[in-house]
Amino acid sequence: MVKEPDREIALNCSGKCPAPDTINRQNPSIQGDLEEESSSIDQEPRSCGDNSVWAHVSPLLSAACSDLNEGELIHGDNFNLFAAMSALEIMDPKMDSGMVSTFYSIDEAIESGFAPVPISSDRTVDVQCIIDIMDHLLACEATWHMGHSLAQTVFSCIYVLRPERTSSHALLHSFCRVIRATCRALVSVVSDARTNEEEDLFTMTYGLPFNGDEDGKGLLLLNAVEETICRQLRACKATSSKRRVFEELEPLQTNPQLEEGFCKALLCRIRFRKHFLHALNCMRRPQGRGLELARKHIAYCIAELESVLSSVEFLSLETVENGKNEMEESTTGSGRHPIGFDPNLNKRLSAPTPPRAIKLLSWKKAIDYYVKLLHNLDQICAFKLEPDLDAVLQFVVQFQKSRPDLVARAHLQLLLVQDGKLYGRDTFLTICARSLALDVTKNHGLHLNEYILQLNQLMINLLKILCANTPWQRRKLGKILNDWSIFNVQMGITVGHMMQQVTTPRTPKNGDKSALILNHIYGWLEEQIHWVALRFLVLGFDLKLYSPSEYCMVYWYMYIILWKLAEKAHFRVLIIVHTEERKAKEEDYSRDMAREDRISLWVLLLKCQTSLAQGLTVMIAALRNEGMCSKSQGPFNTENEKFVQHFGLLQKASLPKYDAYESFSESTCHARLDYLPVYECFRDAQKMAKEIKVGYANDPDKLAEVVGLEQVAEHNIIAVNLLCQDRCLKVSFEFIHHPHFATAVLQEKWLWSQMGLVSQEPALFATSIKENILSGKKDATIDDVVEAAKASDAHTFISQLPNVYE
Question: Where are the transmembrane segments (predicted)?
Answer without folding.
Answer: none
